[in-house]
Design a protein that fits this description.
This protein has 224 residues and is of the alpha+beta class. It contains seven helices and nine strands.
Length: 224
């Protein structure tokens, strides 16, 4: 089995002006993602476009571990960008540019039955900053109450949670969905109405701008 899920992710999010959109998407699909997938420790990748929230574009890279970003191959690519990469220059031409690296904290074990799963057709991405005094209860509730409940909703494939290694905010939750309409279903709304996280943790946490975002996969292309 070819492993497609690792213990870390790199998330790149950005808004792009309309006049650069075509070149941006061509670069990502034809050069950048294929090149990164030749790098040691890069297991899989998907590109997504926001249906709700933002930034508009999201690239999610499945990493064997955060060590994938320290290999000589990856560092050499970063040090010697192609002419096309220089022209796109996300940090210069992009707006709301985010590049974060996260290591997985939930589940804390590797499930052999899911390692070969490809990039989900849709994602919901929550990026949260949690006050230190309620972190323990936040993590406990998410792992023992909220996530098991979410996984009962039809169309919710998986839930994984992460802690930031580079960038922020500190916590990232990725919901993998069969389609982007899952958060609009009655089952999802009923689950949300029963959630008591804020009462349990005794406080509030903050979402980053544009979070939670719901994203539809655009690479690999979807047939529906």
């Amino acid at each position: 089995m070819v492993e497609k899920k690792g213990r870390a992710v790199m998330m790149v999010m950005v808004d792009i002006d309309a006049e650069l959109d075509g070149d941006f998407n061509a670069w990502y699909d034809q050069e950048h993602v294929p090149e990164l997938l030749t790098m040691p420790g890069f297991l899989n990748a998907g590109r997504y476009q926001a249906i709700k929230g933002g930034p508009r574009y999201l690239a999610c890279y499945e990493l064997e571990s955060i060590d994938a970003l320290q290999t000589s191959e990856y560092l050499n690519m970063r040090k010697n960008p192609s002419d096309w990469t220089k022209r796109i220059s996300l940090s210069t031409n992009g707006r709301s540019y985010v590049r974060n690296v996260y290591t997985q904290i939930y589940p804390d074990t590797r499930d052999e039955n899911t390692l070969g799963r490809g990039m989900a057709p849709a994602l919901q991405v929550g990026r949260m900053e949690v006050p230190e005094d309620i972190e323990a209860k936040y993590n406990e509730y998410y792992d023992t109450v909220r996530t098991p409940s979410n996984l009962t909703v039809p169309g919710c494939i998986a839930v994984r949670r992460y802690s930031a290694v580079e960038g922020g905010p500190k916590y990232l939750t990725i919901y993998e969905f069969e389609h982007e309409k899952v958060p609009e279903t009655l089952a999802w709304e009923e689950r949300r109405s029963m959630d008591r996280m804020h009462e349990f943790i005794g406080g509030n946490y903050g979402h980053a701008h544009g979070s939670p975002g719901v994203y539809r996969r655009i690479l690999p292309a979807r047939s529906f």
